[in-house]
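HUMAN: Please help interpret these tokens:
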Amino acid sequence: MVRFTLAKEIRDRILSGAVSAVDVTQAVLDDIHARDENLGAFLETFDIEALAAAKAIDDMRERGEELPLLAGVPVAIKDNMLCEGHIASAGAKILGEHRSAYTATAVQKLRDAGAIVIGRTNMDDAAMGSSTETSAWQKTYNPWNTEKIPGGSSGGSAVAVSAGFVPLALGSDTGGSIRQPAAMCGVVGVKPSYGRVSRYGLIALSSSLDQIGVFAHTVDDARLVLSVIEGRDDNDATSVDLLEPPTPYNLPPTTFANLRIGIPKEYFIDGIDPDVRARVEEAIDVMKKNGATIVDVSLPLTPYALPTYYIIQPAEASSNLGRYDGIRYGTRGDGGLNESYFDARGKGFGAEVKRRILLGTFILSAGYYDAYYKKALAVRTAIRKEFDDVFEQVDVIVSPTSPCVAWNMGEKFNDPIAMYLADIFTVSANIAGIAGVSVPCGFAHDLPVGLQFLAGAMHDEKALAAAAAYQAVTDWHTVTPST
């Protein structure tokens, strides 16, 4: 079967009549049904709806109507995004029977642009995890080596793109949940600035950190999606009007000329896999040879980012997940009122979710709020100010996306601290609300390595432009797994 890895290629071929949207959609569904059993990327495919939407695109073309921007392009969505009439469980057993009453803004914008929503992808339980092993439903495996994890929590969406099932997928990023699996699966992962994409219809984990973003093979394809889904939404009070024009999707190739790239010494520390560090340093050298100005910068508060994150995120998660009690939301438990609460939540949440709910509830409890949560918010403000100061000196910051490549299934499952450390280079962007892009930059131990570009809040195009410039002079993004 011929697999189309680029959204622009699919769109152009459908526009020209070289292929029909129905044929593309059917081929994608057949491929998922044939190969995904060994990868576990999808929890459900929307076969009937997807084929009907594809036929509508073909009918528009036959009538000579102007086709929308993503006409016929297959897209997958993470299991925490609502799609009316379909289950959205957020990978959690307690929401296993929850059917969406409406559709998330980002998903609806994709549909309005002609994209074909193929199905929902696997994720960590309530988006808590860095390996997609905590899902209540199934494991997801890395297509580069099925003995390895794919990263998380958006592992299913990363695998759906990496394995060639779909050219595009949506994920959510609370502390690196798009960029980290993108790095480990060898694809592009984009976390927009906080508020750039509406969170309406996203099942909340941590409301001040969550952001919907994109997986693709190229930065250009990611730009294409962002140009569709970004912008102010009256249904989401945290969404904002853009400081810059909407993300352009048809820019000429970007160069490194006049681009100032900051290299923070705090992101090149002991504990990084030496081969990962070598690949990132080689990528920096490529950018320098192609005209970039490399500037050494410092972000002294970086060591405090991870503990700050693991105060804010569990606190907000414990509040957000309070509604899932088996009565207002979620599968009903057995017994009377109190027994029902205990039964529903005891059975409905996994160990990692319970761990963070307990931690968050403690943080927000009387006598500890000021000592922990309020202090973490003060550190957050200082981290944001530190990034603002650095971005007055440079256009973008470059770092490893992850300190390591994908590890073995089960290797860190019972060691939460080791799992949390995998996000050490990604959580700062969520705390500060800035833009982050991960692109492939080579291999270590025969597994993909990710290169992270960071840009100031609402200046996403700077990170996208730098990442696109890197892809223009390298071909790591063209290498795909054989699985």
Remarks:
- The first helix runs from residue 7 to 16.
